[in-house]
Amino acid sequence: MCIWLDIIYMLSTTLINGIHNLYMKSDSLNILRAVSILGVLIGHGCLQIGYEPVGRFCGYIFVQIFFLLSAYLLGIKYGNTSIGISFLVKRWKRLSVVYYPFLIIVICSILLLGGNVTWKNVFTHFTYTNYFLQDTLLGVPFGHLWYISMMMLCYVSLLVLQKKTEPLFRGCGVLVLLVVTFFVCILCLKHHIPSRIPIVVTSYLIVFKRAKDICSWFSKLRNVPVYIYTFTLLCNVICLGLFLYWNLNYKLLIRDIIVLITACSWLLFFMTALKDMKCGKVLGFISAISFELYLVHHPFVLGDLSWLNVGKLTGNILINSFLAIIVMFVAAFILNKVGKLMSKAME
């Protein structure tokens, strides 16, 4: 027991010392990013211990929020400018300086432990095509890497559709785009393609294109309308209720649409009701390493490798959970530092 306490103390000290050295912003979107990654961790933990409806609710909602946040922040920066290949290269570097070291460590670890890694696994993950080619490393433990494929597809979509498409993102054009997306989703499901692909891409494009208009509208609000609180509350109650009592996870298209609307309600709420809220050191730290946390957390909390499995490590699920949290945060912090070093080396 003393050994475990020493390990916990050492890892905790490393983590706390790192909090003060990371770049942090004080705004509601960083709080939302931190809340979202914590929601993903909780969701996947709930899935592992058997609370599937709550796990699905948290997992789907908070991952969708990451897409919306990315689209909004990039839209503020690039929304009215012409983007080219240099934009895509910059985004590829931004992902790869963290993602590639993570992949190398994971693949080497699997091989050293006697696991199986195919050349297809290596190719699809390093080319960001694993989700579209339905390829995973060890199945569930690294199934979360679909998110990386989708994020790269969103970046490519911005580049492909940025010219001569402005009418699609204004007025009736948005409605037409949504209707077309709905029918594309139906076609995708008929061909066993996830409907979340067109939904995520379309929502990403719309938020990116209209980000500055959204920001302008938010900045003009002096008092938060009551309907924003009502909308956010209703969306989350309905969505969670459907996961609990209607098995929403298996109503694929309906699920993806409701998840998107609910995720939008979170973004709306944080950018209005909580727009003046300041981000403290702890949430700022979590926000700063949110991408790295997303990468490292999955095998610790979900699947056969999960430390939440009864009998793993100490045999006590509470101690195991605490150890998993500490190790995940330290690993994410180290991966964040590695990414920064690689970024500097590639300049």
Largest sheet: none
Strand content: under 5%
- Mean pLDDT equals 85
Helix content: over 70%
Order of helices and strands: HHHHHHHHHHHHHH
Please mark out the parts with pLDDT under 50 across 5 or more consecutive residues, or reply none. Answer: 1-26
How far is it from the N-terminal to the C-terminal residue, by CA?
47 Å
Oligomerization:
single chain
Shape: globular
Number of H/I helices: 14
Structural class by sheet pairing and helices: mainly alpha
Number of strands: 0
Radius of gyration: 20 Å
Describe the structure.
The protein starts with a helix and ends with a helix. It is built from 14 helices and no strands. It has 347 residues and is an all-alpha fold. It has helices at residues 2-19, 28-49, 52-78, 85-112, 119-126, 146-161, 172-190, 196-209, 211-220, 226-245, 252-272, 281-288, 290-301, 317-346. 73% of the residues lie in helices and 0% in strands. The model is unreliable at 1-26 (pLDDT under 50). The longest helix has 30 residues, at 317-346. Helix 10 packs antiparallel against helix 11 (252-272).
